[in-house]
Design a protein that fits this description.
mainly alpha; 84% helix; 0% strand
Length: 445
């Protein structure tokens, strides 16, 4: 596996996964600076709940679709099964949200939640095509198409926010939810157009027919019941800090914490890149019994991603006061220690994400689920204790220990139970691949 072999796909992957970071920066400049703290805290909680439901649905129906579609050329029944299983999950989730909206409003201490909760099933519905087709593109590593679909959502949202926030009466959480609904719907339309062009109109039409192939549905269930649990629980973990802060400290503290946490979108991009490339690649190598390629993929990914993220994290830690002062203009100066703690926790994200991707790609979803369940329970206990004892700063510091523990558990699981024969000495020696690539690049210039 030569380092520069898939450079073109890597470029589109980096561009695609940079969009959330660009959106995050725009969000800081356009939303967090302007939106009142109460409104910002309310929007964060509702948006987090939407992302949790999407993660649960995609892990149950669409992650199995990626695995099985990556292993074959005939994907008609696989795509149809994944599509309708995801639609069924969306309908079920929408009913649950509507019936529990008043209880959630009381739990989060946000009276307006009950009236805004109607946007959750609406956003889930208009984003169905977007999510299904993004995962289908991922299964065949059609990264450029994924990029264009996401451009419509992320950059389209920023453009609409910039226009709407020119008017003070539109500077509310509800307007943010309206904008999300519009751009999710538009990106679904674009995804349809690219799917017809990339695959075929016949495939897209067959996906729309209500059909649950018995064999495929059983395969999806056997894989999805564990990937659903693992991914849904992990996503809940990533948002548990905000939910716990809201329950104990209220929406204003949620706003302060998330003013620092917004910068961790860079780490989210690293996780998404690892899942986008490593899950289908490791699934293919695993099905072929190619242990050498599996090991090389793991060692190179861990070395280069960790090196890049460590450099970024160090810079964010050192220049946290300057970054916050420049972007927030003094509004969230209390977030400096929060940002520093979160930047240190990010160093362990590449190892965490890559190990988890290998567990999913090689079919070790049961181990992935059990490790994630233990890690999340550990995180909830630590978050709850630290928030009571030390407030929002205790929650931020807890992230360092939790990220380290999660990275260690996933890595142990893939080495102990998976097909990965990785050695740490092999990871460290991958600097030679970087040197070789740089020499070739400089020589070709």
């Amino acid at each position: 596996m030569e380092f520069g072999k898939h450079l073109k796909k890597g470029f589109w992957g980096l561009a695609d996964k940079s969009l959330p970071a660009i959106y995050g920066l725009g969000f800081v400049l356009l939303v967090i600076r302007v939106l009142p703290k109460e409104e910002f805290g309310t929007y964060v909680l509702i948006q987090n709940l939407f992302l949790l439901l999407v993660a649960a649905g995609t892990s149950f129906a669409l992650q199995p679709m990626v695995k099985y579609a990556a292993e074959t050329d005939d994907i008609t029944e696989i795509a149809s099964t994944g599509n309708w299983m995801y639609i069924a999950f969306v309908l079920f989730s929408g009913i649950i949200v509507v019936t529990t909206k008043n209880l959630l409003a009381e739990t989060f201490q946000i009276p307006s939640f009950a009236s805004l909760a109607w946007y959750l099933p609406l956003m889930l519905f208009v984003s169905i095509a977007r999510n299904v087709l993004l995962y289908l593109f991922q299964s065949k590593l059609q990264i450029r198409q994924m990029f264009y679909v996401n451009v419509v959502y992320y950059l389209g949202s920023l453009l609409l926010i910039a226009f709407a926030f020119q008017f003070p009466k539109f500077q509310t959480a509800e307007i943010m939810l309206v904008i999300n609904t519009i751009t999710l719907g538009l990106s679904s339309v674009i995804a349809f157009a690219f799917a017809i062009r990339t695959f075929s109109f016949l495939l897209v039409r067959n996906m729309m027919r209500i059909k649950f192939a018995k064999i495929e549905t059983l395969k999806f269930w056997n894989y999805g019941k564990y990937s659903f649990g693992a991914t849904a629980i992990y996503t809940f973990y990533t948002q548990a800090d905000s939910y716990i802060i809201a329950s104990f400290l209220g929406p204003v503290s949620v706003a302060l914490y998330n003013a620092a946490k917004i910068f961790t979108r860079v780490y989210d991009a690293v996780l998404q890149i690892s899942f986008t490339f490593i899950v289908p690649a490791s699934s293919k190598f695993s099905s072929q019994g190619d242990e050498k390629s599996l090991t090389a993929l793991a060692e190179k990914s861990i070395f280069f991603f960790t090196t890049a993220v460590a450099i970024f994290s160090l810079g964010l830690f050192l220049f946290a006061p300057e970054v916050l002062a420049f972007l927030y203009q003094g509004k969230y100066s209390d977030a400096i220690p929060l940002l520093r703690a979160l930047s240190l926790s990010g160093i362990f994200i590449p190892l965490l994400g890559i190990s988890a991707s290998f567990l999913a790609g090689t079919g070790r979803v049961k181990e992935f689920f059990l490790a994630t369940l233990f890690n999340t329970l550990f995180a909830i206990v630590l978050y709850s204790m630290s928030s009571k004892l030390f407030g929002v700063h205790g929650v931020a510091l807890s992230n360092i220990l939790i990220s380290l523990e999660m990275a260690a558990s996933y890595t142990y699981a893939i080495i102990r139970f998976g097909k990965l024969k990785m050695r740490w000495s092999g990871v460290l020696l991958r600097y030679r691949d970087g040197q070789s690539f740089l020499r070739k690049w400089l020589f070709n210039r």
